[in-house]
Queue: 4 jobs
Job 1
Amino acid sequence: MSFTPHGKHLIAGEWLDTDLKFRSEPAHGAAHEFSAGTVDLVNRACEAAEEAFWSYGYSSRAHRAALLDAIAEEIEARAEAITLIGTQETGLPEARLDGERGRTTGQLRLFAAHVRDGNYLDRRHDAALPHREPLERPELRLIQCPIGPVAVFGASNFPLAFSTAGGDTAAALAAGCPVVVKGHSAHPGTSEIVAEAIHAALQKTGTPGGVFSLIQGGRRDVGTALVQHPFIKAVGFTGSLVGGRALFDLCAQRPEPIPFFGELGSVNPMFLLPNAVVARSAEIARGWAGSLTMGAGQFCTNPGIAVLVSGDGADVFAAEAVRALEPTGKQMMLTDGIAAAFRQGRDRMAATAGVEHLLATTCDGRAATPSLFRTSGAEWLANHALGEEVFGPLGLIVGVADEVEMLAVARSLQGQLTCTLHLDAADTDLGRRLMPILERKAGRVLANGFPTGVEVADSMVHGGPYPASTNFGATSVGTLSIRRFLRPVCFQNLPKELHGGDIVDCVGTPALRRRRQKAHGLPPNPPPSLMSVEATSQIERRGGN
């Protein structure tokens, strides 16, 4: 199935052109001309999204689930064309595009099921107590409600799973929020055909066109206008620390500040504990090499740092890592800009005092081979620049003097998406000492594995303290990510005639009350008067809420 992009923007159900153009820069195959985004298109898309919100935001969960399922079906119907244009634009192999497409459609269907289930609404109901003394209690109901239109910035490294119909878009649509996507210039053709799939799904389900818009390319002022538009109520972003921080600051400086859910940068350190190193350093090194070079090292969960105690075991690990990495052929970087940044980071690392270059790399044009460096724990602690992400197939081994220095290296870390422990049973004591540090530093802590696989599931967290993300309480993967685009609303003494379906379904929360009473040392079933005065005072004195 062939596909030739027409190069237009999708704005509220219409394919629109502009006079300003740009050309794609594919890894192979023909380049195509695309219409570049403008501030006027941003205004039109955001106005359409706001208008659509008044119907879509209050549509049934069944309707939203049907839309998500329909998008998945329409993407699958274009599978061959998506893989063709995606491999041409990114240089990624067909198997990677096929797998990422499956992840994308699976994610959409997971959210469809999650919406149908309804548990994400966190429905709560406290019945009225009209005879409570000294004051009666009103009836209270709570549900999570959609916040309004959401802006999504497509990622360079995942043309499907973190782009036009990726996790941010799926979560926002599931919540009931219209989406305006700013497509990434690295893969505009892929974005266009996925937008066609979404457009077809909107038509199939009778959903307003303003629920989804795609704006391609454009100057920096287009992104600025999007995050500053008054109708946009949140932003989802996956990209660089510099670009993400600039957008984050713009969101904070708005007259009405909005949340910016940015996933920015992480070196995803691994801590190899002594007994695990003695038992299986070669095995761990080979696994690390595979994870380090997956997708040419262009995963946000790429484990760029390996920390272990210096000695014979560390030398074996380093030698085995070199042997595992050496045969790796040239891999295609996603864009010329990413390749140039990789060369810069590699050269900066090579020129750093106290850093040994174990494996040289080549990076001609967009084709790169892996690079490996080694330094000491003391050098790491003295030079914070060693902890900066180099996006690409580059690894750094940090040899620490002892367990005390390993703990110091862990404490020195900035926020991370992941931290990994490789340990055996005899390493449990050191592992226990590391755990409080690592869980404070990362959104996901792994044992005896590698972080490059991010499961799309209820329990997944893909986020972490800054600079891994700009909101440590959120995740961009898994069903919990829907919470980013919801806010709790309490309905007090609301007449039944005004109840929507989701409000009616609110249920009592006796289990929640019992947990709260137990936590504050209260009797299990106090009389209403006690709960209203004495119990409330106890909770306030003990710092409850």
Job 2
Amino acid sequence: MDLPPVGTSGHPRAKTTAADARPAWALLEWRDTMAYRAATLERLEAEYDRFHRPVARRLGFVIHDPDAAEELVHEAFIRLAAEIEAGRTPRYPGAWINRVAWNLAVSRARHQRVVARDSCRLVPPNAPLDLDRLAIAGELTRVVTSALAELSPDERLAVLLAAQGYRGSEIAMSLGRTCGATRTLLCRARTKLRRQLLAWESDSSR
């Protein structure tokens, strides 16, 4: 019968594993990585419990589709997990989730507009159309889109959120700003838009 190997002390020598064969620094690094991932998961779960429901509820109210809002918020949290894992945890996770979910909703709306525009090609060619009204609506859309494009990202987001009925405190949280700073930013953005629209009205009335 084979006997287990005996160490210098006379006691049976314990079997070694691959983990035991690692150098000490590698074991420490591995433990730190596991601890970091556990902390990351715990942080993400905490942020999800805190922000998921209110963000999904507000977004569902805006886009009139609670199921789609849930999907968008889940996607936003997936992106938050990637940021935390990469060591880039946002300073204000709630505002970050709000902004990412809103940007995803805007992208979704743009995609739906493209689909709707393409589907218009299926309209019979003899269908009656009010060409003057369509021309004015198209020009106004172009002017508003151009005016929004000249705003900063925060100004544009503030205007769009305000247009959807968000309160000032909610907009401030989404932007990660104080309520006073948000009011100033929103006032400045609206002034820029008003200037563009007044210029368009003046030109179109000539």
Job 3
Amino acid sequence: MRGNAGIDTLTIVNSTIGGRLNAGRDDDTVTVQGSTIGNIRLGTGNDTLTLQATSVSGDIRGGSGTDTLNLPAGTVVTDSSFGTFTVVDGASYSLTSGTFALPSGQTITYSQFENGSGVPCFTRGVRLLTPHGPVPIQNLRPGQLVRTDSGGDQPIRWIGCRAFSAAEIRANPRLAPVRIVAGALGAGLPARDLLVSRQHRMLVQSPIARRMFGQDQVLIPAIKLTALPGIFVDDAVPGVEYFHLLFDQHRIVFAEGAPTESLFTGPEALRSLGAEAREEILAIFPQLAGGVQVSNPARTIPRGRQQARLIARHLRNAKPLLAENWGAGT
């Protein structure tokens, strides 16, 4: 089975492909659920492969771009460069080549991958802007209104959380949050120190973004911002509790005044959630069970190399991530 030339989104559910699954050229997103596949080959672009309850009798190979392999929580990975680790909810990881043992017990060989993504989320204590002012995220409940940038005040459809101890963070440093020091984004934001998971995306609004992408605003994962002053992985936290916030659509909300994203129900996000949380979300949005996203991203999400170039240009030119004319949510 082969994808087309150009950008493809391919979802395979409850199927058997005895031969090779080939992605096309350019940037492809491939999701395989409840299926049996012979071999998987990605193309030459920046591709994303997500496996869910799937058996692969051969091997999996990325391509020449920056490729992402999202695996089920509980998968044990043995990577030639990064050693042995277990995939957990809320974590990201780096890859090169090696093997992984699925929770089902099957061992699969992979090569030519660069990373895997976890679910984006806020930490306990972060204050989100509501019609009644900033409210700590742990005090919010489904049905309560949260202020968004373009849809007005929107009701929360689902909120979930998961805690990790200091010992768990020491055992898996990828669980440590990113700390964004007050004012580090520009325009005086965030108003207080903000802690988010590594893959949680922050909004960047700047002339540099417009020159690169043809629009002022894009979403960039927090871990990509750590090259900038005042933004770093805080591995000294005495444990962390991550919260996930879901609306009818992917939204831009305001955490400590800074524009950032709600949970985006793409396949990798749902894949990284625990079974109970995933079942709750699917009960609210049953269309997600078939691989259908609730909505498109609230803003453009550049590819990995573009993200790195954007941040490098901001650093080189000493320009803030939020231009001084940013006014929403402050």
Job 4
Amino acid sequence: MNNMEIVKAVKAGMKESANATYLMDFSSGGKINTEYVATVSIGLSLIEITSFHHGDYKIIFEYHTNKFINATVPLSKRHDPNNISSKHIIRKNANTKRPSRIDIAILDSRSFFETPICAIEVKGNNPSKKLLFSDIRRNLEYFKHTGPTGSSSLELALNCSFHSYNDSTKKNYCTTTRDKEDRIRELKNKYEKYISELNKEIPDKISVKINVFTATEFLLSPDADQDEYESHIDDLHLTLGVMVIFARKPISN
């Protein structure tokens, strides 16, 4: 499982969760109020990756942060690598500043010891800045972690969220594809500002990408007339998905 495959699968899972939410209740507009729906959908999408093989990889919900961060560094190493009789140093037990559980953890279990591949945090509709920053900072801890046996080898961490524009009483209500482009641009700018505030906390060798995309929609063309609007008023909806992608190697798409 490589980074590109994981990102594509997570995006597909986010779209599926918003679409399923809309189909279950048209009035929802695909708004993700319960983030566990998206979490499960993402997990199911991940196991569809062609390179995912049972036994080689694990996809675990609600994985302990201490287990994850500890496994980002080697279990042991020789005190003197050039001396075969040198004693082994064992990694020290660690945890994140905010101990809890990761929404989705992906582990490589092909070797004797499981190695973390990716941490995925999922938030529902329009999460607060405080909650987002808390999750992002914790994901960054996994990249920064070092110990007596070495430095973190984690390659990827994702922060996912949703934003719906289906309330006709609000200024950001979306009815046309032109409105959608405005919402995408505004949301991208919002998250870029967030990242700029955290820029000094991001390790030098970690790239950051913000991916804003349509999770589910039914919109009119900008030149739609009043009759067309009235005939589709109950169908109009837009929910956008956002992925903040932290990676050791930049992801092109």
